[in-house]
Amino acid sequence: MSVPTTIKDRTARAREVLARCDALARFSEDANSLRRTFLSPPMHNCHAAVAGWLKPLGVSAKMDAAGNIRGVYAGADSVSPRVLIGSHLDTVPNAGKYDGILGVVLAIALLEELDGRRLPFAIEVVGFSEEEGVRFGVPFIGSRALTGRLDPELLERRDRNAISVRDAIQQFGLDDRRIGEAALANDVLAYLEFHIEQGPVLERLGRQLGVVEALVGQTRLTLRFLGRANHSGTTPMDARRDALAAAAEWMVAVELHAKQTPDLVATVGSIEAKPGATNVIPGEVRLSLDVRHRSDEVRTRAVRELTELAEATATKRGLCSQWNTLLEQNAVQLDGFLVGQIEWAIRASGCEPHRMTSGAGHDAMILAEEVPSAMIFLRSPGGISHDPAEAVLLEDVEKAMATGVRLLGQLALSQEFLGRKNRA
Ligand SMILES: [Zn+2]
Questions:
Q1: Ligand 1 mean position to 110 CA, how many Å?
Q2: Confidence (pLDDT) at 422
Q3: Of 29, 82, 126, 380, which is least packed with CB atoms within 10 Å of its CB?
Q4: In angstroms, what is the span from residue 128 Cα to ligand 1's centroid?
Q5: Cβ of 182: how many Cβ atoms within 10 Å?
Q6: What is the distance in A from the centroid of ligand 1 to the CA of 245?
Q7: What is the Å distance from ligand 1's center to 24 Cα?
Q8: 114 alpha carbon to ligand 1 midpoint, in Å?
Q9: Distance between alpha carbon 275 and the CA centroid of its chain, in Å?
């Protein structure tokens, strides 16, 4: 029998988790900041480090054809089903050290915590190759391969250097014809993902850990106000059809509308005025709108109201408006049983859990289409992410590890979990 992990061991291990995140942050495409996009050269070094940490655990890491690094810690017997634990290893430009990466490093630390103990399920650690969508403008290339939804169309997509996803896979030394083999078999009981919250909610509540019940749905669209460009000196104020003034009025109304609708977030993230000169009244403005909510009904209604509002604003000012939907993604509910188990495990680790909705997309959103999935959030100091100031607290990492170990223990004893029917 192995000796149970002492608190002191766990603190040291949590410190090592942070040190490993530091180590992986050195593998970057940019000299003075972290950027590691899908299958970029530094990803080789990142994989080598991950494989090196898995090896002493008896886990041999393998790459699948989508560039995900995967390693299986065997279960009690050779026919054990498996539980996946992972997150992503790619980053945004000028990234922090923890988004995604922490989830992979924590998964390895959990295997170390098991200290050779075998569970009635195998644990597959997964470091996804692509989640952020930076290189090809499409997120989740890694996790899509596990659900068997990395379609040929996506493989032909090209980055700014005209390199296709297929080329990138080949240049990395992988065989794109084997992508189908990356798909999960029907022996997966669950997917678990640890991730920094990337927002201020847990910190505001003074909680260390959160359990994610759902990931918000989102709508993205572009909107245009069409007025009349004219001379800024000779056109009286009552004879103008100023597209930028209309857009400004509408933008403020969008903010107000979101503030008045519980949990709705709406963002105008980009704006372009034409012709864009100091002495010309703007004749055309193009804006983006991003609307998110956990309820698809609330989100859809908000989008309808906001586009109607744009139309009314335009009409009132003698302009017209047009809009075009770019993305429409429904909210994803995570697995209720796992959410309850995580809540229990967080409490047993001495923390008060907080049930929450993720406002960002994550690999769990994709995996949830195929297998019961759940996420644990670690508090983000200052609510900051996608920035070098991104951080995580040592004591929160310790609690996350304690929660993870307890969760695995609970699941190992749960007939309800083990008896779950595998995916069809
Ligand atoms: Zn992430």
A1: 19
A2: 54
A3: 29
A4: 10
A5: 22
A6: 37
A7: 15
A8: 25
A9: 37
Q: In 277-387, which ranges are continuous DSSP H helix?
A: 296-316, 336-348, 363-367
229 CA from centroid of ligand 1 (Å) = 43
**Residue 88 CA to ligand 1 centre (angstroms):** 6
Query: From the centroid of its chain, how far is CA 113?
Result: 26
Asked if 343 and 213 touch (Cβ cutoff 8 Å), the reply is no
Q: Is the peptide bond before 152 cis (omega within 30 degrees of 0)?
A: no
Instruction: Please name the amino acid found at residue 80.
Output: S
Our measurement of the distance from residue 195's CA atom to the centroid of its chain's CA atoms, rounded to an integer in Å, reads 8
Q: What is the pLDDT of residue 8?
A: 64
| pTM over the 0.85 mark | yes
Q: Ligand 1 centroid to 132 CA: how many Å? A: 7
Measure 99 CA to ligand 1 centroid, in angstroms.
5
Q: Which two tokens stand for residue 72?
A: 């299986």
Q: Please identify every stretch of the chain with a pLDDT value under 70, giving residue numbers as ranges.
A: 1-8, 421-424
CA distances from 255 to 249, 260, 285 (A): 10, 9, 18
How much distance in Å is there from the Cα of 248 to the middle of ligand 1?
Answer: 32
What separation in Å is there between the alpha carbon of 72 and the centre of ligand 1? 22
Alpha helices by DSSP H, listed for 32-160, are 42-54, 101-114, 141-146, 152-155
Q: What is the pLDDT of residues 348-373, one digit of tens each?
A: 999 999 999 999 999 999 999 999 99
CA 274 → CA 8, 228, 239, 242, 283, distances in Å? 62, 10, 18, 11, 6
Of 188, 145, 185, 146, nearest to 166 by C-alpha is 145
* Residue carrying structure tokens 């949590």: 14
Strand partners, 293: 217
Q: Are 371 and 126 in contact (CB under 8 A)?
A: no
Q: 104 C-alpha to center of ligand 1: Å?
A: 11
CA of 13 to the centre of ligand 1 (A): 22
Pairing of strands 122-128, 82-88: parallel
Pick from 86, 81, 99, 80: nearest CA to 36: 99
How far is ligand 1, taken at its centre, from the CA of residue 130, in Å? 10
Which one, of 82, 177, 179, lies nearest residue 130 by Cα?
179
> Which of 191, 111, 108, 177 has its CA nearest to residue 146?
191
> How far apart, in whole angstroms, are the C-alpha atoms of residue 386 and residue 377?
16
Q: What integer pLDDT is reported at residue 132 of this predicted model? A: 93
